[in-house]
Amino acid sequence: MKAIRRFTVRPVLPEALHPLSDLARNLRWSWHAETRDLFQSVDPERWAASENDPVRLLGNVSPGRLAELAEDRRFLRRLAAAADDLKDYVTGDRWYQSQSSELPAAIAYFSPEFGITAALPQYSGGLGILAGDHLKAASDLGVPLIGVGLLYRHGYFRQTLSRDGWQQEHYPVLDPNELPLSLLREQDGTPSQVSLALPGEKSLRARIWRAQVGRVPLLLLDSDVEENDLGERGVTDRLYGGGSEHRLLQEMLLGIGGVRAVRTYCRLTGHAQPEVFHTNEGHAGFLGLERIHELSYEDLDFDAALEAVRAGTVFTTHTPVPAGIDRFDRELVARHFGPDAELPRIEVERILQLGMETYPGGEPNLFNMAVMGLRLGQRANGVSLLHGHVSREMFSGLWPGFDPDEVPITSVTNGVHAPTWVAPEVFRLGARQIGAQRTEDAMTVGASDRWDAVAEIPDQDIWELRRVLREQLVTEVRKRLDASWRQRGAGTAELGWIDGVLDPDVLTIGFARRVPSYKRLTLMLRDRDRLLDLLLHPERPVQIVVAGKAHPADDGGKRLIQELVRFADDPRVRHRIVFLPDYGMAMAQKLYPGCDIWLNNPLRPLEACGTSGMKAALNGCLNLSVLDGWWDEWFQPDFGWAIPTADGTAATDEDRRDDLEASALYDLLEQRVAPRFYDRGPGGLPDRWIEMVRQTLTLLGPKVLAGRMVREYVERLYAPAARAHRSMDTSSARELATWKSRVRTAWPRVTVDHVETSAATTTAELGTTMSLRVRVGLGDLVPDDVEVQAVSGRVDPEDRITDGTAVPLKPAGGPDQEGRWLYEGPLSLDRTGPFGYTVRILPTHRLLASSAELGLVAVPSEELVEAAGVLMR
């Protein structure tokens, strides 16, 4: 019989054990080894059965065992120490508290998914794991972040395989009462709610669950409440599920409902209101509209409210391809806003203008969430240097007239939270070398000098550590492979071969990620004979562990998985290559440390960052990757290998490109990687391999930390956004909005009319300084509204300036009878070779974050350019 209702019966903890509940409810245990060890000692068997989830453990431990622990003085001392340590962690001063007082009092961080721990499965892949690591690092640093997301009742999905290797999805129901969450409640004890107005006088209500991530509260909105109709209850059913309207409602709830949840949380707890709002990808972009709507009650019109909101908003883009961005039909968006739906005080047309692709190549009837994010955020960034460059190219249509390099999108390269991803054995080796506290500081705050101690670790210790981690991975793989084959319908009698799968002394390669086509899961299968030779080499064999999920709607990705699985099922190689289904955090934490090589072969430049290789590197695993994402930025031959990328005509033929890059991959494995792993020095150790492990930890370790990433966000984005927010009071917002309107109206009459040069000498020699005189027309503007610049640098064969330098010119007179102003300034010939210059006019105002902000620029006419020619050749 099926129960008509489900609820959780919690144990009553003896008073002496009450701190266990606090420890379980703060997710710091997910990265704090001592707390996990404490929970394991409560009941080791049930700890394993609960998949290392303290809440589930405490729900299953027997009353007798609890009574026994309540009398165990040694356990109680450990419990008291852990509780005191947590209290000190969440209340004591950390890095952020030692910085200047100009930092924001609070930052709200919005993301559609968060990967904190396997016990809270609210993530699908890299975006969610990155968001979880961002929260954890912010907690370690003392950054006053408030996380905001949705609580999906089915999470993403659980993955199994059919007998013939086809991905199958399962959606287990998650009961929030069995998760490390607590309901946010009003003073009278009733659950807090937010509500959104829907068309047809309907509404969408959501409760607010809180997960405590160290010092950082994470608010998760849940629409599965009795007050909602059946359709609205299902809005937060699945991560990245449903059709367009379903996704739109999810993103409205995340952005608009999320701001309302933050306001509710701050009202109830006294937490400082955020000065900065950070939207992690475009899914949460509607948060800016809700904040504009809030300001409409303070008698700010739309334009002024937009300026006030933009000042304190940071937008991070994570996709290098337009197909990765959510786009909605404009009519669908229009139906959900306005007088009969949500945000009634904002004209629907103004909302639509923020997201419309009104640039060459755009789709004018589609509402683009990333475009809205960029228009609502005064500061924006990509997630690696290369991705910043790609993003500036991709979104350059929003800033017409500017070279892509001047598009105001910077980059902060992602990082990973070392205490989450570093194996305990690696941490213990570091602690033995420099002490536990210094090791913890090095992993959280990060500083290069703290990693230099790796150089002192003996080769033998490093090699023994690598073998221990590889052996643990072999055990884990066999256990998971056995479970997978049983799910596929195999019986015990046909699974004896699994005991011989993988070898703890064989070079082990890991490849695990989502399975869109651009990540090329099956590139390794391009020449199966060469792969067989690598796997079965008599002296230098390799073994490969593969994992990954395809999106439920992506049959192409599922076919790639099936192709890989069928190859791995071959009795000739199944002891050397395995595919493990249901890739998630728990598997990843075993996989990264146990691999010797982390393989990544995406189509360049389609990997925005790709942080799995960072997690592997922190455990002494070497990277073998295409130069894409973070590897393009930090690769050195000292600690890894770069897979050459096909270019020229080969890059346009997909089959030819994949053949060339697969061949390069096989060459590297055969000629460079495997020999270095197996070649032994005089002491019987692979000395050159160990040195590469040492260099990986020493040189890469401090760079790949989420602590480094969050510090960059604070210093380069959050602090400037907070200053801009504070300066954008009501009168300043109105002033800036009025000024922008005036400049946009006047700009068609802004012109560069005449340019002349005079040289101190007649020869164009390095070091020569020339004098520029420029006459410009400003129409209804005045010199205070603009900056006139000379831009000079080397020129390419098409006379385009590369690596240009901009120097402001000074007003020297005017207006003349024709209303023209004279500007003058020096032009230095500071480099040899083909050289050129031009002149341009930009809007300028003290409240602008960038001179490109308005997307307005005036340059010389074609006739003027042709008359001037190129200055020097």
UniProtKB/TrEMBL annotation:
Family matches, as InterPro entries: Agluc_phsphrylas, Glyco_trans_35, Glycogen/Maltodextrin_Phosph, Glycogen_phosphorylase_DUF3417, Pyridoxal_P_attach_site
Keyword Transmembrane helix attributed: no
Domain DUF3417: 13-120
E.C. numbers: 2.4.1.1
Residues that span the membrane, as ranges: none
Alphabetized UniProt keyword annotations: Allosteric enzyme, Carbohydrate metabolism, Glycosyltransferase, Pyridoxal phosphate, Transferase
Pfam families the record matches: DUF3417 (PF11897), Phosphorylase (PF00343)
Domain of life of the organism encoding this protein: Bacteria
Cofactors required: pyridoxal 5'-phosphate
Catalytic activity: [(1->4)-alpha-D-glucosyl](n) + phosphate = [(1->4)-alpha-D-glucosyl](n-1) + alpha-D-glucose 1-phosphate
PANTHER family for this protein: GLYCOGEN PHOSPHORYLASE (PTHR42655)
NCBIfam families linked to this entry: more_P_ylases
Family, similarity comment: Belongs to the glycogen phosphorylase family.
Cited function: Phosphorylase is an important allosteric enzyme in carbohydrate metabolism. Enzymes from different sources differ in their regulatory mechanisms and in their natural substrates. However, all known phosphorylases share catalytic and structural properties.
Protein name in the entry: glycogen phosphorylase
